[in-house]
Amino acid sequence: MVKVPAPIEELIKQEGLEGLIGETHRLTLESLMSGKKTPSEVFEEIKGKYYISTEHQVIRALDQLAKIHCVKEVGRKRTEVFTSPIESVYKITDLGKKLLQSLARK
Amino acid sequence: MEYYGWAGTILRVNLTTGKIMKQMLPKDLAVNFIGGRGFNSKLLYDEVAPDVDPLGPDNKLFFGVGPCAGTIVPSSGRWNATAKSPTTGAYGDGNCGGHWGAELKWAGYDVLILEGKAENPIYLWIDDEDVEIKKAEHLWGLDFWETSDVVKKELGNPEVEVAGIGPAGENLVLTACIMCSYTRAAGKCGMGAVMGSKNIKAIAVRGTKGVRVAKPDELVKVVERGVETLKSVDRWWFENFSKYGTPVFSMMYGHLGALPSYNWREGWFEEYKQLSGEVLLRKYVKKKRSCSGCIFHCSGFYIVDEGIYAGTIGEGIEYEATCGFGSKLGNADLASTCAAKTLCDKYGIDLINCTDTLGWAMECYEEGILTKEDTDGLEMSWGNHESIIEAIRRMAYKEGKFGELLALGSHKAAKKIGKGSERYSITIKGQQMGLVEPRAMWAWGLGFGTSTKGGHHMTAEPNVETFATPEEMERLLGITPKACDRFGWEGKGQLVAWSENMRTVHDSLEMCKYFFRSSPRLYMEFPPNVLTALTGIQWTYEIVLKCGERIYNFEKAFNVKAGLSRKDDYLPERFYKEPYTVGPYKGWVLPKDKYEKMLDEYYEARGWDKKTSFPTREKLERLGLKYIADEIEKVNRPDKVEKGGMAGG
Question: B128 is in which domain, residue-wise?
Fold first, then answer.
C-alpha cells in the first residue's frame, strides 16, 4: 500500500477508493504538472504506459482524482477528437501534488 | 410459496391444442437462475431436444422477465425471448427493452412458454389472469406498427403493450426479430422466425397487479445508492449516454479504430464524424424517450424532414443503425440510416444481422461474385443507400431471387452460392456480429468467439477492458492489470469469462447492461443488494456470480449437445489475416496465435476442457449440475470421433 498524506487517505476512504489509487493516477498527475489538460491530451502523453490503452481509463482516473480533490475541473474545451466533442479540462491541485510525491516515492 | 420480487407463475400456452396452463414457479428455479434469461436457459435445456427443427412445432419459445421488472429498479424493464436458434442451430435468444416486460410482470407472470404451432394465424391476449387465443388472419401481412395499432384498437385500450413480428417473421426470414413497444427489438438468433413458424403474430399484455417487494424501504435506499454510484463513479458515461444514447459509440469506436467498415474489411471510416451522436441530435432527434423505469433516456425520437427520406419517423435510433447502415456499408448518409432503421422496425428485422448480410452482399458485388443479374437489378455498391433501403424490403418479403437469398442471412446465403463468398460472411456459429472491431479490442474479439449465441456483442460486452483502470482490474476483480491493454492477450480469458457471467446476471435480472457500463464496483454491489431487498432472501456477490456461471453453463451444455465444440469458438479468418489497409491504424490484425492463447486461458478460467471446450464434470458438479455432466459424457467428443459437429447453422 502506498503511504499517502492523512487528509488524502481520509478522502480515499470516504470515497471507497482504498487500494484503487496507483500508477495510473501517478502518470495522470505527472502529466498535469506541465499544465491544464483534457483527458485526451493526458492520454496522448501516457498511452502505452502501465497497460493504458484508451482515453476512458484516463477519464476514470481523473474522475477518481477529482473526488479526492487532487485534480479540479477548470473548464471545458471543444476538441472533437474524442467521444463527446467537448471535453473537461483539468488542473492538478496542491493536494494532488502531495499525492504525486507519495506515489512517486513508491 | 409466497414470492417477493418474482410474480410466482409460469404461463404455458400450447398453440397446437389451445391448452393454457398456469404453473407455480419452482423455488429452486427462482433462487438458482434469478429470472429472465436464466429461467429461459434452464427451461430450454430441460424441455427442448437439441436436435429439433428450430422452425418446427417441437421448438419452444420462452419469454422471461426478471425479478426487478415493474419495480423502481432503474433500467429493469427488459425481457428475453429464447429458443433453439434457426440462425445457429444452437442456443438462441434476443433481449429487448421497451415496456412489454413490465406489463407481463404486472399481469402476474415470470415466464410465458409457447409450445407447438397454431393451425391458423393467432395472437395471444393476456389481461391479468385472463388469457385468450384470438384469431389473427386480419393481422397477417401487416407490419409491426400497423399490427400494434390494430390490436390496441380492437382491445379498446391504448395502454396494452404489444410484442410481435412483422412480415419478416411471418416469412421465416432468418434475420427476423421480435419487436415490442413499436421500436424495440429482441434481435439476433432469428427469434422472429421462430415466432412466425408458430403462426403467432403478436402477444398483447395488460397487467394491473404490481409487484410485491420484501423490503420496500431498503429497496429505495439500494436504488438511490446505485444511481448515485453510477452518476459519480461513472460520471462521464452517465452524462454522455444520457445525451447521445448508443450513437455515442460512433465517435468512440471511430476514434479508437474499432468501427466496423466496409463489411469488416476496415476498422476505420473516413467520414465517421458525420455519423456521430452529436450530428444525429442536431439534425434529426427531436425528443428523448426511455424504456420502462430507465434513468438514462438514451432513446431518440427522430424525424427526417429534408431530402429524399423526408417524412421518416421513428424511435430508438442506435449505433447499430447509424454505423450498421453507415460505415459497415460504406455509407455516410445519416438520414438514410434513420430510414433503414424505421423499415427494420416495421418489418421486424434485426438490424445487426441485416446490415452484416447486406455488407456481405456488397462485398460479393464488388468482387464480382454477385452480379446485377443475381441482385435482380440492384446496384449493390458501397454507400448506395437507395439500394440498401430497397434490399431491406426485398429481404422482408423474400421478393425475387435476391430477396430469397438475403432472407437466409449471410452465413447460409454464402453456403448456398459458394464461389468464395464464404470469405465475406463475417459470422461466428452462423451468427452475424455486433459492431465492435476485434482487431482493435481483443477482449471483444474473444467475447464474440465464445458467445453461446454466436457472434453476439452483448454476451460478454467486456467494457471493463477499456473503461476500468488497471488498479480496478487487479484489486477489485483479481485479474492481471495487463488485461487493460486492448492489444494484449494476457488476462483476457479471465476477463471475458467474468464478463459473460456478470452479463448473464444482468440479463437474468433483466436490467439494461448500460446501467453497468464500466464500474466494477457497481457490477459487484448492485445486483446482490437489489435482489436481497426485492426477494427477502440474502444474496451476495459470490452467490449472484455463481448463478451467472451456472446459467452460462446451461447454455454451453445445450450447444455441446447440439454438436458445437472448440472449433466453433473462432473468429472469421479476416480478423487474423487481413490487416486494416486504410486510416491511422493501418496494419492492425489480431494474430491467431494470440487468439489461441486467449481461448486457452478462457477455457481454463471456466473450468472447461481446452481440447473440446466441453464443461468438465468437476466444474458442473461444483455448480450443482451433475445431471448435465452425465448427459455431456454421452456426447461424442470431437477429438474422439472422425467427424465432429453437426450444427453451427
Answer: 9-206
